[in-house]
Amino acid sequence: MRWCIYNAKHILLLGVLMATDAVAQLADSLAKTQVTEGELSYKGQGRKFDNMVKEIQEFKGLQALRLEGNTYGVEAAQAIAKALETKSEFKYCYWSDMFTGRLRSEIPPALNSLGAALMTAGARLTVLDLSDNAFGPDGVKGIEKLLKSTACHTLQELRLNNCGMGIGGGKILAAALTECYKQSSSQGTPLGLKVFIAGRNRLENDGATALAQAFQLMGSLEEVHVPQNGINHPGVTALATAMQHNPQLRVLNLNDNTFTKKGAIAMAQALKHLRSVQVINFGDCLVRSEGAIAIAEAITEGLPILKELNLSFGEITGEAALLVAQSVEGKATLEKLDLNGNCLGEEGCDAVREVMDGLNMGDLLGSLSDDEGEPEEDDDEDEDDEEEEDDDVEEEDSSVNQVSSPLSVPRPPDASSFLCFPSPDKLLKLGTKRALLFEQQVDVADAGKTAEAFLKISSVYNEEDKDVKSAVLDSIGKDAILRKAFANPSFQGYNFISSLLVMLGLLKSEDKVKPVRVVPGHLQTLEYVVRQDYFPQDHIAVLEAFMSR
Ligand SMILES: *[C@@H]1O[C@H](CO)[C@@H](O)[C@H](O)[C@H]1NC(C)=O
How many CB atoms lie within 10 A of CB 511? Predict the structure, then answer.
């Protein structure tokens, strides 16, 4: 069942169209002529929405409701809630991305009424998916009651990707899960949450540590995904301890957090206790050589059914990588080993390939094309001392989320690594010179590369996060890449637009370009850009023509 009140993407696109007066008229006439697209109108919305509430009401034995990809205000949520009040068999809330464009203040009351209805109905939930609703800490308050109630005693999957929970939201969530566990246990049916997903939420050490305590208590987790949360070694260590108490753990994804040696060793220690783990994603986690060696040891000793190991982009040197490669010997279930983006050097890469070939696993080794090369010999001596210092800094001020470097000269922030794997944290870490760094990195004479950089940077845009928002806009529009590109008389603006449309999947190209996954940030940034003085009017019309389809 997929409800369509109106297409959120079109609303955003309309924002782009409305960007200038000249185009506003065009958009207007377009809206009038297109009958099907015309359901954007409030009239259409009203008609459909009444249908929807009625259909929910009349659906006997309703178990699942998909609200994702639409947008609902408080009143709409209340009307849906009313219709849910009698659905005692209800189990699956697929409610991701359902508040696009709403004020943040609307979300808690909307969630509250939906939650209250489920409690009234006596529903027993299996899945609660609220991903991609940028509701922030207050949004967590909106589901707090529901999470503590009997409706959630049966919960198996909790999905809260990309919700902007922050430390505060993480703590509220942890307390609610703890309460739910205690209540349900006292009734003889303890909460057995299996899947927990909360990537990109800025949980940081304190949020992660609070959640870790709840995880430890529950002990039922099979999949934990908390990538990109600015977690450093104290938070990683807390999670490691918690994971030891979850013997059914199959998937552990901590991609793009910052382990450093301490966190990685704690995690390796935890892995020794776990027998069911199949997927380990510690890519982009700065596990470092010592961490990799500890993890290799854990793999050699245990993890009998390991399928995937990602230790990419972790500043791991050749010898440590070699130990990792040797550790997968005899793992008949192995499907993928990713050691890309480390510091193996050419010889190190060859040695790792040789070991994997020798194990008849050559084809399971991922590409090593982004290897950073061996670190310089002279700097090895200082490595340990410096790491300890760096770790202390992290402890004192975890919010700054420092990344330490094994080299004695601090490595300058790197625009190219951001462009490979964009994350809001990395963008912020580039510092105030980020616009300049991108200008140096991106060949703005090349329209295709400029479009690609545009999409990479704008993908991390976050309306709710002022710092990230202005970092994105500064890097792209205000005085950086695009201004520079369009200022160049020989810049092929139409090529830029068409590259953009191809990458967004709105225009077919002969060279099979794989479209990116379109995220709101792309369109929100575009909306900003088309309003800038350097953006040619006639280009907007072209954009308009394609996007209106
Ligand atoms: C491993 O992590 C890196 C860095 O985040 C990512 O780019 C890569 O796709 C991951 N590899 C696999 C096999 O998932």
Answer: 5
Q: What is the three-class DSSP state of 523?
A: helix
Q: In Å, how far are 81, 82, 121 from 61, measured between CA atoms?
A: 16, 16, 12
Ligand 1 contact via 366 beta carbon (within 6 Å): yes
Per DSSP, 98 falls in state -
For residue 312, report the distance from its CA to the centre of ligand 1, in Å: 7
CATH number of 38-315: 3.80.10.10
Other C-beta atoms within 10 Å of 356: how many? 21
Mean pLDDT over residues 205-233, rounded? 98
Question: What are the counts of helices (DSSP H) followed by strands (DSSP E) for the chain?
Answer: 23, 10
User: What pLDDT, in 10s, does the model give residues 164-210?
Assistant: 999 999 999 999 999 999 999 999 999 999 999 999 999 999 999 99
Confidence (pLDDT) at 48: 61
Cβ atoms of 170 and 160 closer than 8 Å: no
The residues, ordered by sequence, that sit 6+ positions from 76 with a Cβ below 8 Å of its Cβ are 5, 49, 110
Kindly provide the residue ranges of all beta strands, DSSP E only, lying in 142-225, ordered along the sequence.
157-159, 195-197, 223-225
Name the pTM for this structure. Answer: 0.66
The full set of domain ranges for the chain reads 1-32+412-549, 38-315
Instruction: Check residue 506 and report its DSSP letter.
Output: S
- Residue 370 Cβ contacting ligand 1 at under 6 Å: no
Q: Counting atoms of ligand 1 from 1, which one is nearest the CA of 227? A: 5
422 lines ligand 1 (CB under 6 A): no
Residue 304 Cα to ligand 1 middle (Å): 22
121, 90 contact by CB (below 8 A): yes
Closest among 406, 404, 367, 377 to 289, alpha carbons compared: 406
Classify 93 as helix, strand or coil.
Answer: strand
Fold of 1-32+412-549: 1.25.40
Question: Cα–Cα distance between 373 and 347 in angstroms, integer?
Answer: 9
Whole-number Å distance between alpha carbons of 493 and 488? 10
